[in-house]
Design brief:
Rossmann fold; alpha/beta; 3-stranded antiparallel sheet; SIR2/SIRT2 'Small Domain'; binds nicotinamide-adenine-dinucleotide; 6-stranded parallel sheet; binds zinc ion; elongated; 2 domains; 249 residues
Length: 249
């Protein structure tokens, strides 16, 4: 079997070209080329913190100022980051496809900035503030000067709108993601270690429903052996090449 890069790119482009419905699942790897460390690359630490110290409801209850300091540092970093060619290629693929859904585990908002619209953010969005008490949510675009932002509705503590360890996913998100996985003819799985559930099971769900599953990741993952095709390349190289091949077909 020819599993060279150009051959695989051409094969995925052909599948996408003929598909009425496409689903994409992305993880931290799709943002790596934007300068955002993946969980794995950081040795399982986020900026030197153990996740359970900063990314749990218990941590927030214990020390909301420390948790906000951590998230404000992440927001400040993100303000320096731009979408990369993979984010832009996915936004273009959406415009070219009748039925397209992008499911992401990322909280960085770069897919939205790049122009993706039909987006399911399984783990929330770091650019949302949500009230700990009354659940009021609002989009923000800069780092708050307050140590703990106050809710404009009830005066309670605002928290970042991300899903923390031990919390459930946003209502409807997993159902919508499963529906997209079940109806797609092609699913691209890009830059995820495929180890976090239930996100990891979506590819299996798509495969069982008859979709072609394509993994784009320079490293092998638990999904690699069951994917229909693997492109062992960086997302920022593979995605624009796929788009170009579709446009030429
Ligand atoms: P992960 O860190 O566990 O795995 C990242 C994967 O991306 C790895 O398999 C790696 O080989 C691959 N990768 C690295 N560079 C790549 C590139 N240029 N192109 C394609 N693939 C590349 O990430 P995960 O599977 O998303 O799970 C980690 C959890 O951490 C998620 O729940 C996510 O919410 C969170 N997280 C989010 C961000 C973000 O929003 N950008 C960053 C770090 C962690
Ligand atoms: Zn409130």
């Amino acid at each position: 079997m020819d599993d060279s890069f150009p051959h695989n790119i051409a094969q995925v482009a052909e599948w996408l070209h003929h598909a009425d419905s496409v689903a994409v699942m992305t993880g931290a790897g799709v943002s790596a080329e934007s300068g955002i460390a993946t969980f794995r690359d950081a040795g399982g630490l986020w900026e030197g913190h153990r996740p359970e110290d900063v990314a749990t409801p218990q941590a927030f209850q214990r020390d909301p100022t420390m948790v906000w300091r951590f998230y404000n540092a992440r927001r400040s970093q993100l303000l320096q980051c731009q979408p990369n060619p993979a984010h832009y290629a996915l936004a273009q693929l959406e415009r070219d496809c009748a039925n397209f859904c992008l499911i992401t585990q990322n909280v960085d908002g770069l897919h939205r900035t790049a122009g993706s619209r039909n987006l399911i953010e399984l783990h929330g969005d770091i650019w949302i503030d949500r009230c700990w008490d009354c659940n009021h949510a609002q989009r923000v675009d800069k780092v708050s000067a307050e140590p703990i932002p106050a809710c404009p509705k009830c005066g309670g503590m605002m928290r970042p709108g991300v899903v923390w360890f031990g919390e459930t996913l946003p209502p409807g998100a997993i159902n919508d993601a499963q529906a997209a996985a079940a109806r797609c003819e092609v699913m691209l799985v890009i830059g995820t270690s495929s180890m976090v559930q239930p996100a990891a099971s979506l590819a299996m769900f798509a495969a069982q429903a008859g979709a072609k599953v394509v993994e784009i990741n320079p490293q092998a993952t638990p999904l690699t052996h069951s994917a229909d095709l693997v492109i062992a390349e960086k997302a920022g190289t593979a995605m624009p090449a796929i788009l170009e091949a579709i446009e030429e077909s």
